[in-house]
Design a protein that fits this description.
Length: 295
């Protein structure tokens, strides 16, 4: 592996021959589109304001992909480029390198969106974003080219599985009763977390549990449509994000920090509440405030 890593560092140095303050800002902005905080905005935006079914599908496949990425990183335990050559580092990053989570998520998220809305221009934009987000990780010196290729590959596998299995899985879930849906929403994330009980795996699995329970209850309690005039869509997004921020950022201040007692358990609770709010609390509130209508 030493030869491959050295080649990767040489490649990064070559890419960075043209780097400067302006390009650094551009690629840091592009790389933000692969950060957790960005997806915290984008995914609720899709199912609150564009298409609830596509958004729910996107949330589930993204969270499962994030879990798989964490598991694979810990399995391979590959270093990042700046751990071998500190001169390439232009951005902060933590954890192992292979596969690149940003690259993997870019393929999954933008691919699911493009497949869901079936617009040619969306596929063009999706492929461009996949390429740019992956390249930004190399430019910033936080991933080897092989990390990015690995992320694209794993992401493509998840995307292909989603396209192939989605119709049958969704049809089965619609036929299943509420008890089965709730049991699956709770048991599946917990089982996956038990297989890999780390804080980075807890975040997507807790969110998946909260959203899964929320989606199941929402379908039983009422119906929700993301359609509506622009003012309603804007109001839904603003109100919904206030709730997301309260759970995500507010509870992070109140709850224990890493290394303190109950940190892991309450981290799980915090992310589960984010998912439950996004999947049930916010849509229910939108309907009560008459900012949305049933399907």
């Amino acid at each position: 592996m030493d030869a491959i890593w050295q080649w990767g560092i040489d490649f990064i140095h070559t890419v960075q021959l043209v780097h400067g303050p302006a390009l650094d800002v551009v690629f840091k902005a592009i790389t933000f589109m692969g950060e957790e905080e960005f997806f915290l905005i984008l995914i609720p935006l899709v199912f609150w304001c564009a298409d609830f079914v596509v958004g729910a599908r996107l949330a589930v496949i993204f969270l499962l992909s994030a879990y798989a990425n964490t598991w694979l990183k810990d399995l391979f335990a590959h270093p990042r480029p700046f751990e071998l050559d500190s001169t390439v580092k232009l951005h902060e990053a933590s954890g192992y390198g292979l596969p690149s989570g940003h690259s993997q998520s870019a393929v999954v998220v933008w691919g699911v969106i493009a497949a869901g809305f079936r617009q040619t221009w969306l596929w063009v934009a999706a492929i461009l974003l996949m390429a740019l987000i992956g390249f930004s990780r190399i430019y910033l010196g936080v991933h080897f080219p092989t990390d990015v290729l690995g992320g694209w590959t794993v992401g493509a596998i998840f995307l292909a599985a989603c396209v192939a299995l989605q119709p049958r899985v969704e049809a089965w879930l619609k036929k299943a009763g509420l008890a089965v849906q709730l049991a699956l929403a709770v048991a599946a994330p917990l089982a996956l977390l038990l297989l890999h009980p780390t804080k980075d795996a807890a975040s997507p699995m807790a969110t998946l549990m909260g959203m899964g329970v929320g989606f199941a209850l929402l379908r039983r309690i009422t119906s929700f449509s993301a359609a509506g005039p622009a003012w309603q869509i804007a109001a839904r997004f603003l109100i919904g994000m206030v709730g997301v921020s309260a759970f995500y950022f507010g509870l992070s201040v109140i709850f224990p920090h890493e290394g303190e007692p109950l940190y892991f358990a309450l981290r799980f609770v915090r992310y589960a509440l984010v998912g439950l709010w996004a999947g049930l609390g916010a849509p229910w509130l939108f309907l009560k405030l008459r900012l949305a209508s049933g399907e």
